[in-house]
Amino acid sequence: MTEGIVLEGIAIGYLRTDVSGDSFELHQAAIEHLAKRWGYDVKEIVLADERTREPIEYLKAIARISKADAVFTLSARHFDGCTVPADLIAICDVVTVADKQTFARQIPLPFGAQSVNPPNKETK
Fold first, then answer.
1. Measured between alpha carbons, how far apart are the two ends of the chain, in Å?
2. pLDDT (average), residues 21-49
3. Are strands 70-73 and 40-48 parallel, antiparallel or unpaired?
4. Distance set, CA 101 to CA 5, 39, 84, 97 (Å)
5. 25, 48, 110, 120: which is deepest, by most CB within 10 A?
């Protein structure tokens, strides 16, 4: 463990090597650095490229198995359509390192509970 840092969660990294290109090692180091700085224990970096079959399904499986609290990736460009998949966010938080955006999972409501919407001022 790094001295002086209290690790509070489990993280995995995700990189598309075809997107990172020659900057792959730099991107990997940036993921590990930010995750550790934010208090995560990085268990592994999941790698994919244009030949990887169903990379998001594989990433989700690794996230579940490792009980990851977060997935760190360089940017949304590493996902198809440059969009962070909602079904990944349902499993764990997703953090993009380049712009430090966090896509937080929502905690499900207890069984039988309903969400409460604020009153609509126009319909009073």
1. 56
2. 96
3. unpaired
4. 22, 16, 11, 7
5. 48
